[in-house]
Structures are given as C-alpha cells and as structure tokens.
C-alpha cells in the first residue's frame, strides 16, 4: 500500500539533486511539503586498482571521496535522510547521474528496488511536477555501464601510465604523465593535425579578380597561378583579349536551416561568436539550466519534445502570420515515443500540500532533447543576468527557433566572362531573395545590387576590363584546432560523451601535452600586379600570413608521449577501438552485454601490450655521444654524460664515476626534426651563460632580469625584487609581461598597506575617487563601499592638469580610458 502524505506529518519529502543551485527553484515548484538538497556530485569513488577484485568478476569496493568537506556533507545528508518522510532521487539523466543515485541508495541503505527516481530535462514548474507525478526506480543497467566505464578508465590509467613513468619520466606536467582511455585519443587528434601541418607546407599562389561593366563588378577567376611569370603572361594577354559575357538561367535554390543544438554544437557557436572556451560555455549553460531558462545542456540529441514544437508553431504564426515560415517536416524533429519503461510507477501521485493539479497521464516521452529554451516566448533574459549569459541564451533561442523553420529561398544564376585560355573564366554568382524563411530571425540579408543588371545583360556581349588585380595568397594552409573544433572531432569520432568533452580538452592541457596559444604568422614580401588602362603595375608590399589566435599547439612532451603510446599501445588508443568501447558501454546500459566481460577483454588487451615492454629502454633522443634529449622532472632537458678520466679504475667503477649534468633546452623544439637529426646541439641548447637579461624599461630605468644563488630576481635603478614565485623556470622563458605583472601587483599591495602612512590627498573628486601622492608618485585612488580592495590608476596618460581641471572632464577621462562611470558629487 502506498504511503500518503499527512497534513499533520511534519517530516518533509527529501528530493536529492546533484547541484545546489537547483534546490531553491525546485522547492518553489514543489511547495512546503518538500525539501531539496544536493549531493554535490559523486560521494564515493574507486581510488585505485586495489579497489577492484579482478578475480571475482571485477567486483568494485567503493570508498568515500577522501575530502573533509565531502565527509561532513555525507553526515549532513544522513541526518536529512533519517528525518525525512520519503527520499526521491533527482540526479542528472546520464550514466553518471544514475550511478550517483545508486551510490546514495547503497551508502544510506535505501532500497534500490523501491526508492523513487525522477527525471527532468528542464527546471520548470510543469517539468518538475510531471516528473514527481511519474517517478521511476534506478536503472541498474545504466549503473553497471558507469561502473564498467570507471573500471576501464582505472585499468588504462593504472596499467599504462606507469609505463610512461618508467620509460619517459614520472614528474612532468601537472600531476605527472598519464594515459587515458579517452584522453589519449583526444591528444592523438591534436598530434595528427600537427603532422599534417608539418607535412603539407603552405604554397603561395596568385588569386585574380577582374572588374567589368560600368558598375565595376568584381568577377573572380577560376584559376590560380603559381608564379610571377604565369600571372604576368596572363595579364599581358588580357590587354587585347575580347572578354565575352554569358550567364546561366536563374534557378530556385534553398538554404537550409541550422540543426538543433547539441553539446558540441553550442560550444562551437560560442567559440566562433563569443570567443569563449568549451569550459566557460558549459559553465554558462549550467547557470541557464539551473535558472530554468534552457533544457539540459549535455546531450547529443537533435530532437525536441512535441510540446515545444507546438509552442514554436504558435509563436511563428503569431509573429509572422504565415504558416510558410514553419518547416513542412517540423514534426520529424519530435522525440515523442510510446513509454514502455516498466519501472514507471503509475500509481503514485505528487505528494504536496499546496501542489497545483497536474495530469495523471504519464508523459509521452522522457528522452533527451537538443538544447533549447524552456519557453520560446522568452526572447531576452532579464537585466539580472550578466552579458555573457544573455548573449549565449540569445544564440540558443535564435538557433532553436531557426531549426524549426522553412529554408530560405533564392533565385540564383552565374555570370561568366571568358579569357584567352580554354576553360579559364571569370565568374560572379547573383542571388535574389525570394523568401526569408529561417533567416527572418536575424534578418541581416544584404541585397545583391547587381542581380537585375546582369540578368538583363545580353548573352555573348563583349566587355572591356576596367581593372584586373592579381594578389598573392596562401594555398593549402592547414590550421591548428580550436578547443571547440577539437570537441566536434571528439563527437565525430565517438570519443567520450557530451558530459566529458570539455574535461578531455582541459586534461590534455593540464598535463602539459598541449598549450592554448597564438601562432605567429609568416611575413612574406608580396609582389602583386594590377592591370588598368593597359598599364601593368607591380605593387610590392609585406603581408603576414598564417596568424592564429587561441589554438591548441602540441608541446614536445605531448609529441614524445603520443609517439610512445602510438608505438606500444596503438590498438588501445586508436579511434575505432575507443568508439567501439563507447558502443559496448551503450549495450551494457541497454542490458545487451555483461559489464564485467567488457572489463575482462580490456584488461587482457592491455596486459598483452605491457608484457612486450618488459625489456624496453628509457626514451631518449641521441644528439651526440655525450648529449641526449630527455623529459626531466620539470620538462624537456639535455642530459650530458661526461666520462671519468680516472684510468686506475675498472670499467664498472668508471661507469659509476661518470658525471651527469642537465642543460636547459630552448622552447619550440620540433621533436620530429630532432629525431631525424636535423638539429645540432647549439640549435636546441639554451645559453647556459645567460644569467642576466635586459627586459626593457621600468620607471625610466633598465629592467634587468638576473639569476642568482637563490633564484631569479629583477633590478631597476637602486631597486630589486625577488621572483621566487617563478620557481625553477629557465631565465630565458621569463618575459617582460611576466615581470611587470609581479611588480604591479607588489606596487598595489604596497600602496594598500602604506596608504594611511605615506600618502596624502591632493584632490577629492567624489566620495569614492581622489588624487593622492604615494610612495611612487601621484595617482588616482578609487574605492566604493562594495569593493574589497581599492583600484590605483596612473595619471601619466591624462591630458591636462589633473589638479585644476573640471571634475566633469576628469570623470569623462576615467569613463573613456578606464571604464569607470561615476556621477559627479
């Protein structure tokens, strides 16, 4: 007999979620009879291989996460559970969420078979109440899939990583070297892309544009010329050539709407339009989800609920008053299906003192959806949300709406102008918008002002050129990956899951295998050409090609680790194997495969490869008989072995007497060139005698970086500052920007500590702003009651006399130059 909530029973029904940010909103939807608390993620873990009984079908022995805060929180949850009327588990709808729910049951002795488990994909009142009305129980097939994933990750990490420590080095990067079931294939993608870049050097070619007709319309030539002789010959022949005009007939073309948003797709859009990382994107999405504005953000689904599709249809009809804007096959985006889950508890009703009445009919589907707004009527977020949250929500709102709309329709034709070469012609494509379709959402389409003119131009009409330009460009220039591009490739290759994409990208950077940095382009002196009025002009200018911003660049450590793993564990880390393992995990979650059988296969394959490494020598790259490139405790170094000259010792003693020293390596060494022997020792060795470097000027004095007995320090004039915070960083790897950051921080702290003793107020601008004279000269002191620390602003760039100027002009300078907006007092 099911329990019924009593008005006189003061014990609440406890709902447990993963994130505390959801709790208050969920409680507001459920009413006073419910209390919502968070698990703060996983409560237990498998710490090492010793926690797995391999001989007993990989039986796991879970331990509480070794963290004092986590242990206190477990005590808090135990008290809450013991004082509750009933417990309902509401962790996320994925493998990890299902496992967290099971761990809660197992840890707090709750019956797995009967403890209610609810699922929702948006934090709205309707979704929460629908979920609470139709609870399920824990899906142990999903739990087993998560356990298998955890065990396999441990097998890879604890079996293969020690091989890296033994044969490369134990202490490099953050936390040491490691291999990972999905981490290593992610690194492999970056590594192979670098190989393609190295093996496909860019080539310079000429792109040619011809301007024709009285409208000076730019037509693009369909051929690229490889060198100066080819392009000058073509231009000289063009002087007397009869350029004939032809065109195709206009045809209807359709530009398709964007697809619904998956995790990888929103990360790419955010990267392209907002220039933010996948990690930051997911952080913003998490906030939007917890605030109830969007659906769950870790998904690979491209479907919507039928209810959302109906809302979109109504919105489009009300807004544009025309059914044509709705895609004719929009219902194909629906994820509605018959609910056949035998775990659904249909007899239970929502238990709430003040709950609103909801339908007792089970929802038609509970599958994941694409990322979308919870309410299509909310076009913009309220002012309480920050600019990034507003911008990302706008992208989600627009894309979700566009994905349900009809294609944009155009009439299009191509105009061609002949040259003296066969099959070489100039072309211009004209488009006339006929129906905006999904593009009406942004409505930024520009009209083709030449469409009607070219449509009415007679066929085979002769045109004289107005001007022809030929400019050098780069061909076959392959780019390094952005973080968002790598996420897309992880998804395309079946590596990981939406919930792990961002963490995989972070992990290969944390390990020191990859860095996100700018790529300096190559400056080329270009010889361009321009033909006008039958005069061929040569134009020389220097241009830079190949500049890249915020790209993932593999480091020497990453190359060495990846080549080692490729050589010895290629079958474990190839893309097909990784995808196959993910597919096998999916089969376990559907009950089609036994979880520990998959672990057994994985262990056998790893052990077979590890046995072959028994007699392998440590990874070293020989430069000459005395010098070897190795990975040391703090990164790449040159190991120099100087043989003993004591001839009175036997050979074994001589070996022990050999002197070994380590020399600093320059940054940016190409490991493939090093292995081929393309470098000489002096090419890769940082100058060992360089114990002093002049970085630039600071406070009119030369800023000198020095290496002393106790580490790095810097001097300027009669002043000096220790740089012990840089640790053992090589002196040549410290930049002016690095040092200035330390000095400016030190200066601010000094001003804060000595403000009352050494500074005097010269002029009061407002209650929060004054001009003061401090230890390092006069400056602006700015601190509001809400600021924990004051802001110090230099006056060197103020134009005028800051002691006598008007307050309004001074405040305008602060607003324009330093983005400080304050009203005059």
Summarize the structure.
With 825 residues, this protein is of the alpha+beta class. It is built from 22 helices and 32 strands.
Note down, in words, how this protein is organized.
The protein is an alpha+beta fold and 825 residues long. It folds into 7 domains: 13-138, Rossmann fold, CATH 3.40.50; 159-200 and 480-513 and 555-609, Topoisomerase I, domain 2 (Orthogonal Bundle); 206-256 and 410-475, Topoisomerase I, domain 3 (Distorted Sandwich); 267-343 and 367-403, Topoisomerase I, domain 4, CATH 1.10.290; 621-684, no CATH class; 692-747, no CATH class; 759-818, no CATH class. The chain contains 22 helices and 32 strands. The strands form 8 sheets. Strands 9, 10, 11, 12, 13, 14, 15, 16, 18 and 19 form a 10-stranded antiparallel beta sheet that branches. The protein has a 4-stranded parallel beta sheet with strand order 2-1-7-8. It is globular. The relative contact order is 0.10. Mean pLDDT is 87; it is low at 1-8 and 338-366.
- Structural category is alpha+beta
Mean of all residue-level pLDDT scores? 87
CATH architecture of the largest domain: Orthogonal Bundle
Percent range of helical residues: 25-40%
Q: How many beta-strand runs?
A: 32
**End-to-end CA span:** 71 Å
Oligomer status: single chain
CATH topology of the largest domain: Topoisomerase I, domain 2
Which class of the largest domain in CATH terms? Mainly Alpha
Count the DSSP helices: 22
Principal-axes shape call: globular
Number of domains: 7
Question: What percentage of amino acids are in beta strands?
Answer: 15-25%
- Ranges where pLDDT stays below 50 over 5 or more residues in a row are 1-8, 338-366
For the report, how would you describe the main beta sheet? Answer: 10 strands, antiparallel
Q: Please, what is the CATH homologous superfamily of the largest domain?
A: Topoisomerase I, domain 2
Which value, in Å, is the CA radius of gyration? 34 Å
Domain Topo IA-type catalytic: 139-612
EC number: 5.6.2.1
InterPro entries: Topo_IA (IPR000380), Topo_IA_2 (IPR003601), Topo_IA_AS (IPR023406), Topo_IA_cen (IPR013497), Topo_IA_cen_sub1 (IPR013824), Topo_IA_cen_sub2 (IPR013825), Topo_IA_cen_sub3 (IPR013826), Topo_IA_core_domain (IPR023405)
Pfam families: Topoisom_bac, Toprim
């Amino acid at each position: 007999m099911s329990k019924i909530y009593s008005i006189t029973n003061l014990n609440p029904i406890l709902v447990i979620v993963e994130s505390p940010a959801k709790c208050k909103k969920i409680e507001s939807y459920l009413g006073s009879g419910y209390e919502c608390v968070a698990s703060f993620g996983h409560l237990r873990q498998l710490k090492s291989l010793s926690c797995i009984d391999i001989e007993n079908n990989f039986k796991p022995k879970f331990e509480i996460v070794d963290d004092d805060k986590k242990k206190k929180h477990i005590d808090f949850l135990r008290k809450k559970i013991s004082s509750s009327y009933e417990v309902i588990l509401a962790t996320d709808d994925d493998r990890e969420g299902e496992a967290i729910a099971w761990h809660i049951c197992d840890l707090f002795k709750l019956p797995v078979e009967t403890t209610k488990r609810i699922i929702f994909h948006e934090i709205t009142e309707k979704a929460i109440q629908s979920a609470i009305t139709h609870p399920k129980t824990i899906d142990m097939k999903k739990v087993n899939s998560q356990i298998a994933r955890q065990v396999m990750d441990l097998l890879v990490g604890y079996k293969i990583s020690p091989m890296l420590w033994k044969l490369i080095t134990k202490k490099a990067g953050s936390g040491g070297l490691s291999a990972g079931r999905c981490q290593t294939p992610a690194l492999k993608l970056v590594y192979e892309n670098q190989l393609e870049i190295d093996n496909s050097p860019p080539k310079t070619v000429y792109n040619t544009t011809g301007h024709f007709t009285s409208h000076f319309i730019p037509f693009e030539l369909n051929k690229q010329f490889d060198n100066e002789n080819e392009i000058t010959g073509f231009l000289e022949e063009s002087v007397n050539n009869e350029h004939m005009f032809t065109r195709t007939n206009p045809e209807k073309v359709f530009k398709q709407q964007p697809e619904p948003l998956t995790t990888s797709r929103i990360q790419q859009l955010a990267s392209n339009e907002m220039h933010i990382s996948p990690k930051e994107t997911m952080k913003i999405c998490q906030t939007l989800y917890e605030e109830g504005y969007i659906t769950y953000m870790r998904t690979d689904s491209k479907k919507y609920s039928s209810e959302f599709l109906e809302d979109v249809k109504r919105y489009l009809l009300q807004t544009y008053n025309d059914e044509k804007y709705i895609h004719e096959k929009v219902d194909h985006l629906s994820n509605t299906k018959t609910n056949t889950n035998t775990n659904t508890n249909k007899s239970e009703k929502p238990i709430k003192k003040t709950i609103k009445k909801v339908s007792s009919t089970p929802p038609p589907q509970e599958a994941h959806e694409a990322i979308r707004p919870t309410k299509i009527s909310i076009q913009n977020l309220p002012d309480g949300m920050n600019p990034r949250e507003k911008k990302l929500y706008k992208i989600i709102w627009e894309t979700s709406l566009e994905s349900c709309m009809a294609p944009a329709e155009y009439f299009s034709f191509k105009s061609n102008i002949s040259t003296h070469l066969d099959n070489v012609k100039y072309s211009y494509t004209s488009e006339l918008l006929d129906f905006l379709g999904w593009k009406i959402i942004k409505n930024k389409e520009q009209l083709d002002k030449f469409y009607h003119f070219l449509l009415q131009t007679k066929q085979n009409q002769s045109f004289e050129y107005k001007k022809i330009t030929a400019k050098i460009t780069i061909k076959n220039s392959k780019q390094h990956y952005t973080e968002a591009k790598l996420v897309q490739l992880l998804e395309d290759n079946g590596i990981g899951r939406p919930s792990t994409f961002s963490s995989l990208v972070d992990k290969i950077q944390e390990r020191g295998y990859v860095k996100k940095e700018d790529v300096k382009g190559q400056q080329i002196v270009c010889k361009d050409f321009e033909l006008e009025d039958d005069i061929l002009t040569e134009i020389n200018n220097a241009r830079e090609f190949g500049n890249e911003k915020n790209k993932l660049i593999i480091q020497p450590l990453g190359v060495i680790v990846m080549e080692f793993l490729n050589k010895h564990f290629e079958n474990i880390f190839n893309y097909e194997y990784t995808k196959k393992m993910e597919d096998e995990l999916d089969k376990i979650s559907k009950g089609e495969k036994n979880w520990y059988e998959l672990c057994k296969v994985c262990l056998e394959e790893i052990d077979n490869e590890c046995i072959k490494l028994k007699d392998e020598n440590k990874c070293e790259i020989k430069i000459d008989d005395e010098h070897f490139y190795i990975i040391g405790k703090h990164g790449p170094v040159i190991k120099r072995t100087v043989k003993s000259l004591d001839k009175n010792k036997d050979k074994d003693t001589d070996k022990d007497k050999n002197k070994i020293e380590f020399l600093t390596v320059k940054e940016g060494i190409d490991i493939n060139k090093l292995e081929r022997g393309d470098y000489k020792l002096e090419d890769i060795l940082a100058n060992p005698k360089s114990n002093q470097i002049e970085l630039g000027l600071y406070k009119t004095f030369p800023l000198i970086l020095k290496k002393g007995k106790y580490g790095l320090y810097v001097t300027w004039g009669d002043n000096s500052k220790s740089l012990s915070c840089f640790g053992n960083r090589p002196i040549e790897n410290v930049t002016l920007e690095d040092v200035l950051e330390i000095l400016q921080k030190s200066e601010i702290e000094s001003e804060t500590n000595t403000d009352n003793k050494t500074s005097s107020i010269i002029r009061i601008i407002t209650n929060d702003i004054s001009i003061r004279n401090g230890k390092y000269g006069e400056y602006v002191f700015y601190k509001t009651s809400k600021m924990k620390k004051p802001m110090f602003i230099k006056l060197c760039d103020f134009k005028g006399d800051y002691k006598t100027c008007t307050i309004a002009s001074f405040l305008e300078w602060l607003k324009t130059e330093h983005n400080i907006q304050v009203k005059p007092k």
